[in-house]
Amino acid sequence: MNDPSFDPLEFVRSSTWTFAKTMPHIPHWYVVRGRVPEEDFDAFDRLIKASGYRATWRGYENTYLELGGWKYWVIENILNREKV
């Protein structure tokens, strides 16, 4: 269930995003569970699952959410984003 008090735009604005330097040819940024408030990470993960869309990238199927000019997805304990 989505928390009505959770503000996804505030969460992404206030999080410190790390550039994925091992993949400069696929520019994206990430935050790791445990480096942001866990309840916010979980709320954003639920939002992606509830409001996102399924797509395949290089054979890997995932759920993606576009928000504020960015595309977000979670792989295990990592929340990723890239410019749309």
Work out the helix count: 2
What's the arrangement of strands in the largest beta sheet? Answer: 1-2-6-5-4-3
Q: Describe the main β-sheet briefly.
A: 6 strands, antiparallel
Summing up helix and strand content along with how strands pair, one would put the structural category as: alpha+beta
Can you write the helix and strand succession as a string?
Answer: HEEHEEEE
Query: What is the radius of gyration computed over CA atoms, rounded to a whole number of angstroms?
Result: 12 Å
How would you describe the overall organization of this protein?
- This protein has 84 residues and is an alpha+beta fold.
- It is 25% helix and 37% strand.
- The protein contains two helices and six strands.
- A six-stranded antiparallel sheet has the order 1-2-6-5-4-3, with helices on one face.
- The longest helix has 14 residues, at 38-51.
- The radius of gyration is 12 Å and the shape is globular.
- The termini are far apart.
- The mean pLDDT is 94.
